[in-house]
Amino acid sequence: MSGPNVSPPVSSPGDRYSARAEYSTNGQYSSPVPPLVEFQNVWKTYVTGAEPVHALRGVSIKVFPGEYISIVGPSGSGKSTFMHILGCLDTPTSGRYILAGTDVSQMDEEHLAEVRNRRIGFVFQQFHLLPKLSAWRNVELPLIYAGVDRRQRKLLAMQALDQVGLTNRVSHLPNQLSGGQQQRVAVARALVTQPDVLLADEPTGNLDSRSSNDVMAMLDALHRSGKTIVLITHEPDVAAAAERIMRFRDGRFVGQQQDAA
Ligand code: ADP
Predict the structure, then answer these.
(1) Domains assigned to the chain
(2) Residue 183 Cα, ligand 1 centroid: separation in angstroms?
(3) Is-contact 253 247, C-beta < 8 A?
(4) What are phi and psi of 218, to 5 degrees?
(5) With 0-12 CB in 10 A as exposed, 13-18 as middle and 19+ as buried, what is 100?
(6) pLDDT recorded at residue 220
(7) 131, 138, 158, 208: least buried by Cβ within 10 Å?
(8) 25-80: per-residue pLDDT in tens?
(9) Considering the entire predicted model, what is its pTM?
(10) What is the pLDDT, as a whole number, of residue 89?
(11) Strand order in the sheet with 197-201
């Protein structure tokens, strides 16, 4: 099986990893750099019926640059709500969400969309590729919305496809690619704008085990190249690939496990 062709880190791994978070002996997480993502006592309450539903009940977490985190928890525990807020698709009812030093908790939709487009790359269970466009045309789409010129778009799309190991498939249509390759195109599309965080919601949920392993190997390689990855999954094997597993139950963050791999 050929592994993904992920570009080597620009700085040496030693430099990069030394700036990352570490556990201290008392179990606290600490880092020489500020967190990329910080939730401070975040609540999210939905009021649809007679009773309000508290989907998140005072969640406080930090994610540092370069971390690879998986979010696990039973159905209804608040994972999707957490991801929507983390991805700037929604805002907390109360509490603060600081993303890359900016408080985005109370932003209106227009500003939130700007932050989202600039800082977050999404990957979903369904690949959401446009069937009539080749791999690289799919990958360049976010750059069209961002107003990047044609030549630069093609260059960046090719670089992103190279990062996910698809250099030799750039002109293929989605239906000429395997499920794992289509998901790699979707990851390249998420990466092409160089987001701060890659947010993957059940990225292997639609894949057979071989393709799933393929996508996980690619995420691992992206992590080693310095990307920050937050992965939501209900599959223990998939969750275990991350550096840190964060568990949710009943809308609360109930703990984490380090070095799961
Ligand atoms: P998970 O992703 O872990 O399954 P969710 O975040 O989807 O959990 O849901 C957490 C709780 O919030 C559940 O009780 C769910 O029914 C409720 N919930 C989620 N979204 C909404 C919504 N838009 N309106 C009302 N209740 C919601």
Answers:
(1) 15-258 (3.40.50.300)
(2) 26
(3) yes
(4) -65, -45
(5) middle
(6) 93
(7) 131
(8) 444 556 778 999 999 999 999 998 889 999 999 999 999 999 999 999 999 999 99
(9) 0.86
(10) 95
(11) 120-123, 197-201, 228-232, 68-72, 244-249, 252-258
Quick one: which atom of ligand 1 is closest to the CA of 44? 12
- What does the pLDDT read at residue 16? 40
Which is nearest to 239 in space by CA: 214, 259, 218, 210? Answer: 259
Tell me the CA–centroid distance for residue 89 and ligand 1, in Å.
14
Minimal CA–CA distance to 58: which of 256, 249, 245, 258? 249
Q: Which residues line ligand 1 (CB under 6 A)?
A: 46, 48, 53, 55, 73, 75-81
Q: How far is the CA of 221 from the centre of ligand 1 (A)?
A: 32
Q: What's the mean per-residue pLDDT of the chain?
A: 88
User: Rounded to the nearest whole angstrom, what is the distance from the C-alpha of residue 76 to the centroid of ligand 1?
Assistant: 6
Alpha-carbon gap, residue 38 to 29, rounded angstroms: 13
Higher-confidence residue of 22 and 139: namely 139
pLDDT in tens, 202-255: 999 989 999 999 899 999 999 999 999 999 998 888 899 999 999 999 999 988
Of the CA atoms within 13 Å of residue 115, those in its CB half-sphere come to: 24
